[in-house]
Amino acid sequence: MNKVKLIGPFKQLVPMTGLALKGALTDDQLEVLEDVGIIIEGDTIKSIGKFAELKSAFSESEVHELKGDHTCLPGFIDSHTHICFGGSRASDYAMRNAGKTYLEIAKAGGGIWDTVTQTRKAGQEELVKKTTKLANRHLKNGITTIEVKSGYGLSVDEELKMLRAIQEANNQTSADLIATCLAAHMLPKDFEGNHSEYLSEISENLFPILKEEGLANRIDAFIEESAFSAEQIAPYFEKAKAMGFDITVHADQFSTSGSQVAVDFEAVSADHLEASTQKEVELLANSNVIATALPGASIGLGCDFTPARKILDAGGALAIASDHNPGSAPMGDLITQASILGTFEKLSNAEVLAGITFRAAAALNLKDRGQLAAGYNADFIGFHTDNYQEILYNQGNFKPCMVWKNGELVFDKHG
What we know:
It contains 17 helices and 16 strands. The protein is of the alpha/beta class. It has two domains: about 5-75 and about 370-410, Urease, subunit C, domain 1 (Roll), CATH 2.30.40; about 75-365, Metal-dependent hydrolases (TIM Barrel, Alpha-Beta Barrel), CATH 3.20.20.140. The strands form two sheets. Strands 1, 2, 3, 4, 5, 14, 15 and 16 form an eight-stranded mixed sheet that branches. Strand 15 and strand 16 (about 410) form a beta hairpin.
């Protein structure tokens, strides 16, 4: 028998239910429950209702009664990160802010290849330790599910090292780490062949091991002039789809074409989109692809934000993720970034919260989280306030005081 627990009362609980996956949302569409509790059975939500009534109805349950005013939200979901890496790119950041171009930074030894070099030097256990540390930092900020990409190995053996490290880190943190293979991040400088030959080697030799060891069920690629073209990536994605992998795409960061690839291959998500024009906005909105904004990259690089408002108004589904990585998005603070994106793109609280809960879950093809309702994972977070609006109003300066993952209290600021 699974243990039954009652947690509450919450002055406000925002379940994020009853909202459309696609299109604009207004704050008056948000259901806000008051003075409620959550009944948990095992790792799943059994019911939500008035705390006093639940306490009476489940009198034999284990009760965790909260003191003071608390507001409850679903655990946040960060659907795009690169938190498995070696070294640092602090020098890149300094050079970029001093006016150096991407090419100049790369020539000075920086850029993605710098992280590839440092990640290759790192042992698997070192990567496990670093990934776990960063995952736990995200968890304390209320992020209970974290996507983590490879892509700094860029060879069969080194990508396997990264993905095995992500798998082991998943066993060492209470957060759920969802691994994605980004072996198609760039053509490695030490590969003796062209783009197509590299992609063929990866798909033939790495993909079967991913399936055999259960290391990842998601394949990503960077579609960009400095990485892979739409034509080069097509056979790679065809092989991935034939093997049953989900597809996701680094799309339209500096130039367009990635969105079209995402739609053509029925990708789960297209991420970045800073360069997307109205054509790409409408293309994505008329598809089932989740458009994922990465404001951390815009803040880190000093470039335009994803046209989030246009995507929503066109009827698209918008997720928001941190892109936490050592180069272009080193901050890694999802609540701060989502709040800032909301300010610049004029997004409602409902749209921002949807982007880091159930719409982010959809970007990972996960149907068991992102909302608070019977049958969903018991992943939820508590803020010390009686008004959910305070969370985004403070633009990242207001963090959860409690985090529950699979029904267990995994972080308590006052504990």
